[in-house]
Structures are given as C-alpha cells and as structure tokens.
Write a structure and sequence with these properties.
Layout: H1 6-15, E1 37-39, E2 45-49, E3 59-60, E4 67-68, E5 73-76, E6 87-88, E7 93-102, E8 108-116, H2 138-147, H3 160-163, E9 174-178, H4 188-195, H5 197-211, E10 215-221, H6 228-237, E11 248-254, H7 263-271, E12 286-290, H8 291-302, E13 309-315, E14 323-328, E15 350-353, E16 360-362, E17 375-379, H9 397-400, H10 408-416, H11 420-425, H12 436-440, H13 447-476
Parallel strand pairs: 1-14, 9-10, 9-12, 10-11, 13-17
Antiparallel strand pairs: 2-8, 3-5, 4-7, 5-6, 7-8, 13-14, 15-16, 15-17
Helix pairs in contact: 5-8, 10-13
C-alpha cells in the first residue's frame, strides 16, 4: 500500500529505532510475503495436546466415545490455578483416543484425538457468550481470557491472563504489541496485521482497559512499513463502547534486524529501557503481547471464540506450495489434501516447528499444530547446515553478536566443565536462545542447544532440591 502523506514518509525516515548488536539475516520471506491467510479444509482428525502452555498440567475432561463440539472445553487443570489454561476442541466430532503422542518439543504428551464428524458444523459450536470488555469488570475480563485458553502465540505459550496481572509493586505504563516477526521465512504476523488490523487495535485497547495503561506502541520492523497507513486508520477509528479514545496508541518502526522481535530487544528499541538481568518486561514497566495474541483476545470477547485455530507460515524449499494458512489446532500437515498443501518429501531433509533460528527441529511431520506454532519450515539439503563441530578458537564473534550482551564462550566453557553455578553467573538464565552465537560461530559449535540443555539440567537440579527439602520437612513432622 502506498504511503498516504509526506509527513508519514518523514515519520518513517526519522523514527526508525533498534537495539545494539544483532544480525542482519537474509529474511527468506519472499515465498509467502504479501500472501493472504488461506483457511485449510477441515482435516479428518485432529490431535490436540492436553498441555499447550507454560504452567501446571491439565487433565482431560472428556472420554473416548464422547461427541464434542468445536469450541467445547476438553481439558483443564483439576483445580484451576493461576498458571493453568484450558484446551478446547477445534472441530466437531467423536473422541477416538486419549493417548501420548509426539509433540513439537520433542517429547510425548497426552493428546485427545478427535475424528471429524461429516458435514458443515460452522453453526454447531460451543463458543463462550459475547462479552463487552469495556463494561465488564477487570476480573471478568481476565477470566474470559483464561477461559478462552489464550496463551502467548509468539512461541513461549505463557498464559496471557497471567501476563496481564502483574504483581503488586510492578508499575506498568506501556503496552507493546509485538509485530516485528524477525525470524526468517515467517510471515504470518504480517498477514494477520494486514487482514485484521481492526482486531489488532481492538485487542490492544482491551489489554489497555484491563491493565489501566494509557500508552501503547505497535512495534514492527521497517520491512512492514507498508502496513502503517491501514493500522493508523484503525487507530483513528478505534473507540470504546462509550465513544471515548481508550488511550494513546502509536506505531514504532524498528530496523529489520534479528532478533528485533525478542521482548527485551523490542522494549529497548521502542522505549530506550532495559530489562534488568534476571528480570521480566514488567521490571521495565512494560507488557509485551504478540500481534496474533491480541487478535485472539479481541475474538474471545467479540465472538466468544476460544483459541481453537492457528495462523502459521508453511515454507521452505521442500514445500511446493508455501503459504500462510489457518488450521484447527491439532492439525497434522500431512492430513491436509495435496492440492492445498503439497510437500516434496524426496527433498525434505529438516523439519523445524517455529522459525529457523529459535524453532525446534523435529524428526517427523506427524506432530500436531499447537497454539504457539508460528510456522513449519521444511528445508532441503541446500537450506540446512550439518557441519561437524570444531574446537573453539576464542575468536569472540559470539560475544560481539550477542543481543543480550552475554559471553556465550564463557557459558559454554562452564557447561562443558559441568559447573552450572558458573554458567548461571556468566549469564545462562539471561540467554533468550536466539541462536545468534551459534549462527556466527566459525567452529559450528551448537551453542544454543547446549544452553537449552544447561537450563534443563538447572531446572532438574532445582526440582530435585525442592523434592528433597519437602521430604525432609515431612520427615520432621
């Protein structure tokens, strides 16, 4: 879309911001950039993981043989706590199995397999009642977000109602909508912002109402500058139920630089603030929500729709029909008809759920799409890098390119020595696993993977210590 005014052009030229360091990557977005989101045919079955969030585990609320409706709650925690989010049926059909299945985190977890019922069931759903977010109470609004099963759709899967409930003493004065989408290949956020700017702004207004924050920024990289006029139009048109402007919503344009979409990087680029070591965005007075998450929040109120569909990018050299698609959560790509999603299995060498930098490589395509699946990248041999690791030459490239200003070489040395405490001291828990260090390493050392394993070892050690403490306390009673 052409720029509307000269002043807008000047706005683009003078207001582009960024963070220090980072990588200038080939975006590889050309295959799907500018393409609309295509709604996939309803698959014959869906495999819905019971747990799709960061928090306490869920339990199935249905049994084999039950008929379920699209939008019906099928899993939730036994006693809903603050770190729980329910899961809903994404199609109408019959529960055929409840069993462990492989998932995108390379583990097996309980899944509910639903076989689709023939026919059109668009009107045969079990959505929540429509709720006005500007007249209901804050507690009712947060309960709606939880009941709709909304989690962060940028990758982490953190419960959205928790993020919107900062603890006492944490003052939030800026809400940031994350539309940067800095990962190569991925274009689904761009497509969502193009097709649903009204829901993006509406969702942002709802979040501002819930938190009481009067300032919000929609952050995006300058390779999406063409979207600004349509989003600005929606900002102008956006009014709450009383016909009043809910607050100051602006657009922040950032340089196309990886990992600009990371919460810490985006906060620094748009506000000049820094999240302290070991801290969260709320420690810098900010809440960051992915653009897709804000659209889902708007739909939860205006339509009563739970988070049961996922927009994602399917791309890569082994995909003959790269596109942005909308599928019911639990869809397995190989279940889609060939005329809609044509894959070249002969050329397929690597499958990544998410983006190529921060995503997870998996061994099979028989893995369901989840709430946090932003893309599936199907790579050929030419797109992958399988060099063997060499010895570290202490060149310092990992340090110079770390967006968090850490020392990956020291973290790796500590982990190789089995010293978890030293790894933490040198920044392990501040690492966002963006992959910049591994990308720049001339020795091809799998730094990011080692840091992920190091964090897993640390969590296992902490869990063991907590269990031992609980047993000692029990023995004293």
């Amino acid at each position: 879309m052409p720029l509307e005014t000269t002043s807008l052009f000047l706005y683009h030229e003078t207001m582009v911001s960024t963070f220090k360091r980072g990588l200038k990557l080939s975006t590889r977005k050309h295959a799907t950039e500018g393409k609309p989101v295509e709604t996939a045919p309803v698959p014959g079955q869906v495999v819905i993981p019971v747990n799709q969030h960061f928090g306490a585990p869920n339990k199935s609320l249905v049994q084999v043989g039950d008929r379920v409706k699209r939008g019906q709650k099928i899993a939730d925690a036994a006693g809903p706590g603050p770190m729980t989010v329910p899961v809903h049926a994404s199609i109408t059909g019959i529960v055929k199995k409840i069993e462990p299945r492989p998932q995108s985190n390379n583990t097996s977890g309980p899944c509910i397999i639903i076989e689709a019922e023939p026919g059109d069931h668009d009107d045969d759903n079990e959505y929540l009642p429509v709720l006005d977010p500007f007249t209901c109470t804050r507690e009712e609004a947060l309960a709606r977000i939880r009941e709709a099963g909304i989690t962060g759709m940028g990758g982490a899967g953190f419960p959205s109602h928790i993020k919107l409930s900062p603890p006492q003493g944490k003052t939030i004065d800026i809400i940031i909508a994350d539309g940067a989408e800095c990962e190569p290949y991925l274009t689904t956020d761009e497509a969502v912002m193009t097709e649903k700017p009204h829901l993006l702004v509406r969702g942002l207004s709802i979040v501002m109402k819930i938190t009481g924050v009067k300032k919000a920024i929609i952050g995006m990289e300058d390779n999406k500058a063409r979207l600004i006029p349509m989003i600005e139009r929606e900002i102008r048109l956006n009014k709450d139920a009383a016909g009043e402007n809910p607050g100051d919503i602006s657009i922040g344009l950032c340089k196309t630089l990886y990992p600009q979409g990371g919460e810490k990087m985006l906060i620094t680029a748009l506000t000049g603030r820094e999240v302290p070591s070991g801290g969260l965005p709320m420690d810098a007075g900010c809440i960051v929500q992915n653009a897709g998450t804000l659209v889902a929040i708007a739909e939860a109120f205006t339509l009563g729709k739970p988070l049961i569909d996922r927009d994602l990018t399917v791309s890569g050299g082994a995909c003959k029909t790269p596109k942005n698609i909308r599928v019911p959560i639990g869809t397995i790509l190989t279940d889609l008809p060939k005329e809609f999603m044509d894959l070249d299995m002969a050329k397929l060498r690597k499958i990544i759920f998410g983006g190529p930098m921060m995503g997870t490589a998996v061994s099979t395509l028989n893995i369901p799409i989840q709430k946090n699946t932003s893309g599936v990248i199907l790579m050929t041999m030419e797109e992958t890098l399988a060099d063997e690791e060499g010895p570290c030459i202490r060149c310092g490239r990992c340090i110079r390119n770390c967006s968090c200003r850490l020392s990956p070489v020291l973290m790796n040395m500590a982990l190789e020595a089995g010293d978890l405490d030293e790894a933490v001291r040198t920044g392990l828990l501040d690492c966002i696993e963006c992959g910049s260090c591994a990308y720049m390493c001339p020795a091809r050392i799998k730094l990011t993977q080692r840091f992920r394993v190091g964090k897993q070892r640390l969590r296992a050690r902490q869990a063991a210590a907590q269990q031992a403490a609980a047993q000692q306390a029990k023995a004293k009673v």
